[in-house]
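Retro notes, item 3 of 5
We never archived the inputs for the nicotinamide-adenine-dinucleotide complex last cycle. Fixing that now. Sequence and ligand:
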Amino acid sequence: MKTALITGSTSGIGWSLAQEFAKAGYNIVLNGFENDTPIAELCRSLEEHGAKVLYLDADMRQVHQITAMMDKAAQYFGTIDVLINNAGIQYVAAVQDFPPEKWQEILDINLSSAFHTTRLAIPMMQQAGWGRIINIASAHGLVASPYKSAYVAAKHGLLGLTKTVALEVAEANITCNALCPGYVKTPLVEAQIPATARERGIPESEVISEVMLKNQPTKAFVASQDIAALALYLCSDYAGSITGTSLNIDGGWCAQ
Ligand code: NAD
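Structure as it came back at the time:
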């Protein structure tokens, strides 16, 4: 059985990734903070699909915790076959008001943590002769929106990291790609609704129709299960030649 380590997998897109990979026969390393559902319950529901599950509470802001997570996962499962860098946070403010500590936190979680997990996973993947690295970027890795300077900068950076890693490991049967979702209705997005309403001086109801889905031509949120299905495809034998690229799953947003 292959093992998938998914950062930030206790909620939202990461949780869908954990569920779909468990259903597809992977063992799962679950990571992230506890939310409404207790961690033990999340683990149990993955185990019902036959997966072995290891929960590690490493904080993606802390390099030593990331290192310990990678070591523990490798000790427990022998190796990490699939690494999905998904943990991410958002903060919305005009650039001149953007708190420097929030800038740093977003860069640490949304970008630097992927550098650390990747550099630690590659030797294991090289030894196994196979590996898949998938970075959950965003449409904001390709285009900008106002008030999201740190997020947009981190996600653009993540695409640069994706391309560079892909080139370095191309001959080792390891691929590295980024997925660029549009808006997905997860706790991360729900939290942005009041903040965006405040920043733009509009009612919360208008944030969904006039800000979030305005540029998403389908006028519908992306389903997190669809992102997980695309990630599973990248792990299939058919996807060995797909590397160093970013795949949009954004309802047509970036076609404009
Ligand atoms: P979410 O808030 O539902 O989940 C985020 C996860 O990251 C949670 O499990 C949380 O515990 C974990 N996390 C947060 N800080 C952490 C830290 N310091 N260390 C470890 N784990 C941490 O968010 P989501 O919407 O599912 O977002 C997941 C990823 O998808 C993010 O990288 C986000 O940028 C990206 N994304 C989301 C959307 C969207 O519309 N929701 C769109 C494009 C990209």
